[in-house]
Design brief:
Chain lengths: ~575, ~110
């Protein structure tokens, strides 16, 4: 592993104490925003201020413990990276469904189940990759964004109908959202990094100005205590099979997101990173799952690796594991300071809506970028398009499940669950008819272009292959054909064979004629400039370095060039 | 492949459009030789519209560098996109030329 030049304090570095604490506080400020999710679930359950405060206190404890699990480097658990865990939008839909069906105990029980499920999934992640290609994983992230934004907008609409003065609700929500957006767009440094927290503070100030706070919002007595153990009297757990599928889908979505975020961690910490380290990802997803399991047992809500925090560490150049220890320490200590939890538990609903809409923007864009990172053909166009339409339909028509069997209702009430299942099934169906091995026979008389230009482009799109891998394979084809046709002067057909699965792209070029060698040593500049043989050796050298594996051989009376690209 | 020749300040800009393979390198090589014969002060090869370059194309650039040395003018490359930069890297050519982000930057730095 080679530390990139733009990383100041890498994974194993111990930064100076002041830098470590400041960086940890920045992460804590961002992570604190996600405490809105437990607050949202408690509000949906009409929980008392005391219960909400207790949930928030334990939520801080959970974030600290889950962050420690992720930075661990054990044989079975933990990626070893600074990859903090925050409460996840992925579980919102399922949790609110659980609240309506069985209150907070059902949320806690099903969250525990989801944590177990995600931990179990971590062991078979590599086998699931063909069924959850990048475009489906990106769609899942987009659906999380859509459902989050939907929760935020629905909440504002509900408040407008109930409230005596809708203008106050809208003013607070818009001002809070506008503050977050403006700081994110037009400022730099600390103001930009803390834009969400500052926007929330603006919302709190306006809510106080308009008299939206009441004494009951802050409970009685205990919030004046400096240190207090969170109450556990509200804790109990239950399980309902009807919600197993929604929580399982949420666990799958969380595992996919954790994989993406942890891949980002690997990439930003290693200048020589080429592809994800799967065993490391599996240990990281297992830690993510155990974090959610602990969250359920401690009476809170599902957690997930935070892409925002990883982005912050990349932007600041500080990815040291020691920051994770500091973050965990801060949250574990603040879990025992009731005043902090009480203030967060009293978060005004317009402010919560604003924060949800703000964070959903990043999820939407992140998901879109992942979807479009792969080549898309008509099959994938329909997988993506129909899934988005399906997710939006569930969002726009929340009563779709009425009149359907009880087992279908949790699916039809969540754009995330419905959309994920739809994407999975459409992807399976559209795999029919895709040949994973394709052949092109070109006539030498067609010249160097041979029709091979579209060959990999069209098939790459059908396969949903990564663009960068297809481009490398296209170069291999063009460079090899260029020498074979133009310099070796062959006149008989060239046979090109390409085969693909989610992990490998293999190319074989067979022809009658002189074998193009693939040397390991670069020819000198003089050899390249002054002789055709030097040009051929450069071609072979480039072909070898361009592929992950390359060889040239004689077989069956033909010269054959074989290139392997890891996908 | 098309090759556009223009002037920017004290530099002659040669901008190939397409693929610098065996066929394209012949055209590019001829244009570079023509420009070199005119005795420029600075010759900038702008690669922003190049899809990819093969070994034949790299040979043409080496010949242009030899010409620049013999005729005493400066040669620079500019606008290498991500994939083209990858090809220069695997061919071992990144350190051989002065490479700039744009033609304007090349002229400002050398011209």
């Amino acid at each position: 592993m080679k530390k990139p030049a733009d990383i100041i304090h890498g994974v194993d570095d111990a930064p100076p104490i002041a830098i470590g604490i400041l960086n940890a506080l920045q992460h804590v400020a961002i992570m604190a925003v996600y405490l809105i999710f437990p607050v949202i679930v408690c509000r949906a359950a009409n929980a008392s201020p005391a219960t909400t405060g207790a949930v928030v206190s334990l939520a801080m404890l959970v974030m600290g413990v889950a962050t420690l699990l992720q930075v661990a480097r054990t044989r079975w658990l933990g990626s070893g990276y600074l990859c903090p865990a925050v409460f996840s939008a992925t579980y919102i839909d399922a949790a609110i469904a659980a609240v309506h069906l069985g209150g907070l105990p059902l949320v806690f029980g099903m969250t525990t189940f989801a944590g177990l499920a995600e931990s179990a999934l971590s062991g078979i992640l590599h086998r699931l990759r063909p069924y959850f290609p990048a475009e489906v994983a990106g769609l899942v992230v987009m659906l999380v964004g859509i459902s989050n934004a939907g929760v935020g907008v629905s909440d504002i609409m509900a408040q407008l109908h109930r409230s005596g003065d809708g203008r106050v609700v809208l003013t607070i929500a818009m001002a809070s959202l506008a503050s977050m957006v403006a700081l994110n767009v037009w400022t730099r440094g600390l103001a930009r990094m803390l834009c969400a927290l500052i926007g929330i503070a603006v919302g709190y100030a306006l809510a106080a100005w308009f008299g939206l706070f009441h004494g009951a919002d802050f409970g009685t007595g205990h919030w004046f205590a400096w240190i207090e153990l969170p109450t556990l009297s509200y804790l109990s757990w239950s399980f309902n099979l009807a919600l197993a599928l929604p929580f399982l889908v949420s666990a799958m979505a969380a595992a996919l997101k954790a994989m993406a975020v942890l891949s980002m961690c690997q990439k930003i910490n290693d200048d020589e990173w080429i592809r994800p380290d799967m065993p490391n990802l599996q240990r990281g997803v297992a830690a993510d799952g155990i974090g959610t399991l602990i969250a359920g047992l401690l009476g809170t809500f599902g957690v997930n690796s935070s892409s925002t925090c990883v982005g912050l560490s990349a932007a600041s150049g500080v990815t040291s594991r020691y920051i994770a220890y500091a973050i965990a320490g801060i949250f574990i200590v603040t879990a025992f300071i009731p005043g902090i939890a009480t203030v967060l538990a009293a978060m005004p609903r317009p402010v919560i809506a604003a924060a949800l809409i703000f964070t959903s923007c990043f999820l939407l864009i992140n998901g879109m970028q992942t979807v479009t990172s792969r080549m898309l053909d008509s099959r994938k166009t329909f997988v993506v398009g129909l899934t988005i339409v399906g997710g939006l339909a569930v969002q726009a028509f929340p009563n779709l499940g009425i009149g359907t069997p009880a087992a279908m209702r949790p699916i039809l009430s969540s754009s995330l669950v419905f959309g994920t299942l739809l994407a999975f099934m459409l992807n399976l169906v559209f795999r029919l008819g895709i040949r994973q091995k394709v052949t092109l026979v070109c006539q030498a008389s067609d010249g160097p272009r041979l029709g091979s230009d579209d060959f990999l482009e069209l098939n790459g799109a059908k396969w949903g292959a990564r663009r960068d891998v297809i481009h490398r394979a296209q170069f291999a084809l063009h460079q090899a054909i260029d020498v074979i046709i133009h310099d070796f002067g062959i006149t008989t057909p060239v046979r090109i064979e390409a085969s693909f699965d989610e992990f490998n792209l293999d190319l074989a070029i067979a022809y009658d004629g002189e074998l193009l060698e693939l040397p390991e040593q670069r020819p000198s500049d003089e050899e390249i400039r002054d002789s055709l043989e030097g040009v051929h050796r450069l071609a072979g050298y480039m072909l070898r370095r361009n592929a992950d594996r390359a060889r040239s051989e004689h077989a069956g009376g033909k010269s054959i060039l074989k290139f392997h690209f890891n996908h | 492949m098309d090759v556009i020749v223009s002037v920017l300040g004290s530099a002659t800009i040669v901008e190939p459009d397409g693929r610098i393979d065996n066929a394209g390198s012949g055209i590019l090589g001829q244009r570079l030789a023509d420009v070199a014969a005119g005795g420029p002060q600075l010759l900038v090869v702008d690669l922003r519209r190049v899809d990819y370059i093969t070994s034949a194309g790299f040979r043409v650039l080496l010949l242009a560098a030899k010409d620049a040395s013999a005729r005493n003018f400066k040669l620079a490359l500019c606008s290498l996109n991500g994939e083209l930069r990858h090809l220069f890297q695997i061919a071992g050519f990144l350190g051989l030329f002065q490479v700039y982000a744009s033609r304007e930057e090349s002229v400002a730095a050398i011209g």
